[in-house]
Structures are given as structure tokens and as C-alpha cells.
Specification:
heterodimer, A: about 110 residues, alpha+beta, Potassium Channel Kv1.1, Chain A, three-stranded mixed β-sheet, about 45% helix, B: about 525 residues, alpha/beta, Leucine-rich repeat, LRR (right-handed beta-alpha superhelix), seven-stranded mixed β-sheet, five-stranded parallel β-sheet, 15 helices, 18 strands, about 30% helix
């Protein structure tokens, strides 16, 4: 997915925008671990998101989306490793992250 | 004033009675401080000497030595019953608001109780309130069990017998006190006995479907009987019971056992007797070898042996030695050999099946995978496969670590997808039964990503000449049923799509048997 989009001259990075206007620029390949984002950015889909590489999430606030972006890099960094360290999540965010994870299908 | 509450009749000493009437003065003179501050009295209250403002009066009544008071309270018993209850309600107002946990209180428990009190004011989804109601009903039988455990602890009775109690659920809190069990030492001079108990827990003939995780923390558990329950699966924690000598799992609805049960056959364990049957275990469906005569092969497999001279029956052509088997050292009393496995079942992040065999309740036989089968994951997310847990798993793990886990489903918004509630309730039951670890990499997980069943032959070695199957350790002769029953299906679960069975060393049936014989 990511390689095909790179071939078409698209940016290596995508921007994730939260409900309260925070923007997170993350690697496209890392973000595409989420099935929902991968579908949004699919160039065949003709979604707005695919054209300008900006995904707006109306249901996820900045604090949660920051953690989501952190996860994308955590997953990307550990993609070929045998011993994967645990990712820490503050307990107050766990329910919101759970819902975000279900929404993003990650 | 004296109308609703009859004053104590102090028959012995008239001076005491006058004392009671002059309460205000009396009170000031007494040096003993009140236990807690009095309830606030406001000028706006309709009547300061209101009927229910009885606390002070009661205090006055009990002034003086106790032996003067006793006859008075006895006399006014009947008429006092009703106001007595009223007074009880005052207790909460006396609370200073400062929380001090006593030694005996578990802070977590108190906090949970407080939480549940708060939560009950929130609008709860229907399913949740139903669950708590069910919990209450069970509590009565559990309380009996609790008091019995307490009794056993007091007496030093090591046989904890809850057979045929109609138990549906056992909670962790009920079992937890057993961990503190200590033997009562006999008082004989010069004789020293170990204080380590040899606990025997009998839970036979109940309606249990799950076990509390605390039971697996009982290091001194020697006998565990779960005969005649409704178990469909055992928690993986069973492998932690390293001092277990007898385990009875017969007459349940078990279709497979957890892979961790193999720990009980390691060289450091003491397991002596194991009852697995009858249970509706999955049976391997071995494809007939096309090179041999089909009919013969099939019947050979069915009756267990082609030639009676062999000590071990042939299982068919599919055979291999799992690396796990090589890595471990087994107890000399048990012969444990890997036989076959099913294909790997791949699960999505929320536990739905994407690929692989169906382990439904209706199928008794599951086709086995080829020896050379290499598991192929379904199309991966992104461009790479990763051992990293999914975000859903990470978040669920964080939820599981909080002490408020059982209440979390009620905090979800009403329009949240039902799968989240299911996942959270799944996490609750997982946490209660002690959690689970990936059988490949050892990582803690909640939602498995891969599943497969391995059949292991577990049999007890009797002597050099022969061996009996786990089903009937005393029988020397092997028959068809024994052969089938010695094949035990073990469920293995992995935490990521890369946690799959390792390739086995391929050997043919007879060579495998010879090799294990040499190993014996």
C-alpha cells in the first residue's frame, strides 16, 4: 500500500488531525497499520483524505490521538524485533484508547 | 420527652435515676470524650427536641455502672425495638469523613466497594445490572463456602471438601484465605513436623464453569478434584500447581486442555495420578496414507495397533517431534510425546476468526495438519508483520490492570459497539482466572491472535515392560479405547501472528516410536 502510493509521488507522511485541532504528522507506512486509515488513504478510493494526505478524526481528541500516533511508531519500530517491549498507557486513557483502537481497527 | 422512650427503670439505686434526669449537668462533668462529634443541630430545624433526636438521651440512659443498667434495658425491650432501628441510621452522620484502613481491611476491596456505591448512581446498561444481580444470588452459597474455608483454617483441616454444593461460581476472595493455611503442629516434645500444609481441595459435582485464579497460587495444593462440573476449558494457570499429586478432571465438558498442563509432567513436578476421562475431547482426524492400503491403515489406526508385539501403537503416517518436546525434560514416571497438530487458526484483533479450522462445539474430530505444514498468515495489516500487540490489545491490557475493571463496561457510552463490552467482560473473566501467556513467546495477552491444537500422548510409565494410558493407569492391557484416550488435545494460543508452531522434525511413525523408546 505505502510503496504503491510512494510510486505515485505522494508524500511519505500523512497528517492526523484530532477533534480539537491537534495535528500529528506520521509516517504513512506506520499509520497504515490501521485498517481504517489505510482505507482512507487508499488512492483508488477517491476520498479527500487520499488526495491531500490529511485525516480528520471527529471523535478522537488530541491526547488520545497523540497516544495513537505513539503506538504507530511503537509498532513500526518493533516490526522486525523478537522481544517487543510493552507500551505504557496511563489508566485514565485506557477506555478512550480502547474505543479509538476499535474505530481505527488497529 | 419520656413519652416515646421509657426511661430505664433503675430499680437498685434511686440516686442513679435522679442522675439520669439531670443529664445536661452530668454530661459536662464526665471527662470521657464522645466517640464522634454529635450531629449538627440547626436553628431552622422544626423542633430541636425532635422525636428522632434520641442519641443524647440514649447516652444518658446508659450512664452509671453496667450492672445497674441491665435490668432497665431488659424491662423496656419490647417497646424499644422500633426506635432502636431509627437510631441506627444516625451512624453515618457521625462519620468524621477521615478514612483509616484497619489492619484487616484490604484497601482495594474497600475502594472497590466505594466505587460500586458510586457506580450504582450512574445509569447502568441493562446487561451490567443483570450480572450484579446474578452475583448476589450466588453469594449465599458462596458465603457458606467462605465460612467453611474459615473453619478449615481455624481447625487446620487440610481436606477442603465442597463436593455437591451446587456451586456455580467461586470468587477469588473466597479462595484467597487458603493461601495463608498453616498446619496445627502436634504438641509432642522432641518431634518436629513441617508446617507446610498438604491441601486437598474437592470441588466435585458442582456446576462450576470457571476457576478463580487464586486457586493456582496455592503452592501446597496436593489434590485437586474438579470431577463432574461444567468446565469447557481450563485456565492455563493449572500448570502453576507444581506440587499437585492428584488431578481429577473427569466428567466435564472439556474439549481440550491448556497447553500449560504439560508443566505438570516436567521433571520437577510430583503428579502421580491424573483422571481425564470421560470428557468430550477433540479427536484428531488423520488422513489415510495414500501409499498404503487405505482400509488397513484406517483400521490400524482405529484399533490402535498393527502388531500386538509393539509396546506402542502406530498412529498413522503423520508423525513428528516437536521442538518443545526436545527442549523439556519430562518426569520419568510419565511418557509425554508430541503427536500431531491442527492447522493454525488466525484471529483478528478482536478475536474473530479470519482463517483456519473451526473449533466449534459440534465437531468431535478435527483434521490434522500435514507435518510439513508451514502456517501462512492471512493478508497482514500494513506492509509488515509484527510481534507487537495491537493497539486494542495494549489498551485492553491497560484496562485490565486497573482495579475498576469490572465497572469499565458501564462507563462506555451507550452507542459504543457491543464488541467492546464483550471484550471487556472477556478481560474480566481472564483476569479472574489468572491471565494467560503466549505459549510461544511467553508474553501476557488477553485476546489471542493464533490458536491451534496439539495432540500429545500422555501416558504413565508403569515399568519397563509396559505402560498404561492416562485413562486407566492400573490396566496393563491396552485396548482400543485406551489408545484413543491417551491422545490428549492441548490448546496452544499465541499473542501475535508470528507466534506459530515451530517446524517439527519429520520422522515416520515407527521411527518416532523408536526414538522415544530410546529416550525412555
Amino acid at each position: 500500500m505505502a510503496s504503491s502510493s510512494q510510486n505515485q509521488g505522494l508524500s511519505k507522511y500523512v497528517t492526523l488531525i484530532s477533534l480539537d485541532g491537534f495535528e500529528f504528522v506520521v509516517l504513512r507506512e506506520a499509520a497504515c497499520i490501521s485498517k481504517a486509515i489505510a482505507k482512507m488513504l487508499n488512492t483508488q478510493s477517491n476520498f479527500m483524505e487520499a488526495k491531500d494526505g490529511r485525516c480528520v478524526f471527529g471523535e478522537i481528541n488530541g491526547i488520545v490521538l497523540e497516544k495513537v500516533a505513539e503506538y504507530f511508531y511503537y509498532n513500526y519500530k518493533n516490526r522486525n524485533k523478537e522481544d517487543v517491549p510493552d507500551m505504557e498507557i496511563p489508566p485514565e486513557l485506557c477506555l478512550e484508547l480502547l474505543m479509538a483502537a476499535d474505530y481505527l481497527d488497529t | 420527652m419520656a413519652d416515646d422512650l421509657p426511661l430505664p427503670q433503675l430499680r437498685s439505686d434511686p440516686t442513679t435515676e435522679s442522675f439520669t434526669k439531670n443529664a445536661a449537668r452530668k454530661r459536662a462533668r464526665l471527662s470521657s470524650p464522645p466517640v464522634s462529634s454529635d450531629p449538627a443541630l440547626f436553628s431552622s430545624d422544626d423542633d430541636p427536641s425532635a422525636d428522632n433526636y434520641t442519641q443524647e438521651r440514649r447516652k444518658k440512659k446508659y450512664r452509671g455502672p453496667w450492672y445497674h443498667q441491665r435490668p432497665a434495658s431488659d424491662a423496656g425491650q419490647d417497646s424499644e425495638d422500633a426506635p432502636e432501628k431509627k437510631r441506627r441510621t444516625f451512624e453515618r452522620q457521625f462519620d468524621s469523613g477521615v478514612f483509616m484502613g484497619s489492619d484487616g481491611t484490604d484497601v482495594d476491596e474497600v475502594l472497590e466497594e466505594l466505587e460500586s456505591r458510586n457506580a450504582s448512581t450512574l445509569p447502568l446498561p441493562l446487561s451490567h445490572s443483570h450480572r450484579t444481580q446474578a452475583g448476589h444470588r450466588v453469594a449465599t452459597t458462596e458465603e457458606v463456602v467462605k465460612s467453611q474455608i474459615h473453619g478449615c483454617l481455624e481447625e487446620g483441616n487440610e481436606n477442603i471438601d465442597f463436593s455437591s454444593r451446587g456451586l456455580k461460581r467461586l470468587s477469588n476472595a473466597t479462595i484467597r484465605p487458603l493461601a495463608t493455611f498453616a498446619r496445627v503442629p502436634p504438641v509432642i516434645e522432641g518431634v518436629y513436623t513441617r508446617l507446610e500444609p498438604k491441601l486437598k481441595v474437592f470441588l466435585a459435582s458442582n456446576d462450576l464453569t470457571s476457576l478463580p485464579g487464586e486457586i493456582f497460587k496455592l503452592d501446597h495444593l496436593i489434590v485437586l478434584s474438579l470431577r463432574g462440573n461444567q468446565f469447557e476449558e481450563l485456565p492455563p494457570g493449572i500448570g502453576k500447581l507444581s506440587s499437585l499429586k492428584e488431578l481429577n478432571l473427569s466428567q466435564n465438558s472439556l474439549r481440550c486442555l491448556p497447553f500449560e498442563i504439560l508443566e505438570l509432567f516436567s521433571d520437577t513436578s510430583r503428579l502421580n495420578s491424573l483422571n481425564l476421562h470421560p470428557n468430550p475431547f477433540y479427536q484428531p482426524e488423520v488422513p489415510p496414507n495414500p501409499e498404503d492400503d487405505r482400509q488397513e491403515e484406517e483400521s490400524q489406526y482405529k484399533i490402535g495397533l498393527g502388531n500386538r508385539g509393539r509396546t506402542r501403537p502406530r498412529r498413522g503416517a503423520v508423525c513428528g517431534v516437536s521442538p518443545v518436546q526436545r527442549r523439556r525434560s519430562w518426569h520419568s514416571q510419565w511418557s509425554v510425546t508430541y503427536q500431531v497438530r491442527t492447522e493454525v487458526r488466525y484471529l483478528d484483533i478482536n478475536g474473530t476468526r479470519l482463517k483456519g479450522p473451526d473449533f466449534s462445539k459440534d465437531t468431535a474430530r478435527i483434521p490434522v495438519a500435514d507435518v510439513n505444514d508451514t502456517p501462512q498468515a492471512p493478508t497482514s495489516r500494513g506492509d509488515y508483520k509484527s510481534r507487537a500487540p495491537s493497539l486494542l490489545e495494549v489498551a485492553l491490557n491497560a484496562c485490565s490492570r486497573t482495579s475498576q475493571l469490572p465497572l469499565l463496561p458501564s462507563y462506555l457510552p451507550e452507542d459504543s459497539p457491543p464488541v467492546l463490552i464483550d471484550l471487556l467482560t472477556f478481560a474480566v473473566s481472564k483476569k479472574d482466572s489468572g491471565g494467560s501467556k503466549c505459549t510461544t513467546c511467553g508474553r501476557n495477552f488477553i485476546v489471542p491472535r493464533t490458536e491451534w491444537i496439539e495432540w500429545w500422548e500422555i501416558a504413565k510409565v508403569l515399568d519397563r515392560n509396559g505402560m498404561a494410558s492416562a485413562a486407566s493407569p492400573l490396566r496393563q492391557m491396552e485396548n482400543e479405547r485406551d489408545v484413543l484416550e491417551s491422545m490428549v488435545p492441548l490448546m496452544r494460543r499465541g499473542c501475535s501472528w508470528l507466534c506459530v508452531p515451530e517446524p517439527v522434525t519429520v520422522v515416520n511413525g515407527s521411527a518416532a516410536a523408536d526414538e522415544t523408546e530410546l529416550a525412555d
